[in-house]
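Q: Could you predict the 3D structure of Adenylosuccinase?
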Amino acid sequence: MDKLVSEISRLAVEFADVPMLSRTHGQTASPTTMGKEMAVFAYRLKRQRDLAAQVPFFGKMAGAVGNYNAHLVAYPDVDWAKVAQEFVTSLGLSWNPYVTQIEPHDYIAELFHAVTRFNNILTDFDRDMWGYISLAYFKQRTVAGEVGSSTMPHKVNPIDFENSEGNLGLANALLEHLAAKLPISRWQRDLTDSTVLRNLGVLAEPIQTVMRRYDVPEPYEKLKAFTRGQQVTQASMMAFVEDLHDLPAEAKEALKQLTPASYIGNAAQQARELPQHL
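A: Sure. Here are the predicted structure tokens for Adenylosuccinase:
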């Protein structure tokens, strides 16, 4: 998000004085500048980015139905709410004092709704850029060896904006379902959230592979016990990595920096090198 907002902001400044004829209802209207139109998108996207960044990530530690039942039977004199709050906040999370068996996931819905709004604005941007290309306000660069059109050699289709629009729609369909589903759980617990949460990225594969590299015993079994049927969060995954005492510090740090978005191997390189193999 930050990189995209920064790039569109840069274009707003670069094109600040470039005049263009605006369009309302698809018809020619009063003059504007391309920089100002870019600034509109930069400002809108930044707002949603900031709102997404403000969403707190909650945690809980209150037992099977959220009442510290077993905790109080075992240690009745402990202030379990205070202990739970201190433990949860020590992990860098916000503490939710009112839970059932699960943390209700409202914050995930808040985050996904913010990302959905960001994606909607970006879809608007894609469509405007597509239109400006169609009007010849923008001209696309030709790239040697790149197919601009499947049947008409003279064309360069705006496929990047079209692919972006399609993928944003697909992402939003999933995000909107997750945001609507995750806050709902029958009574004190059901498993519908568990099956849905499995659609959020888990980095079990690279961690077990690095464990094998450094001869950590039973890497698959350890990851299986940690991830299968469990709710895996970024915090719990980082805690798991930190507890792997056989890994050197630099290996732990590299694993902690991984995200589902960055765990793509050389996919981008393969895509760029495709023309060499055709």
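Q: Anything worth pointing out?
A: The mean pLDDT is 87.
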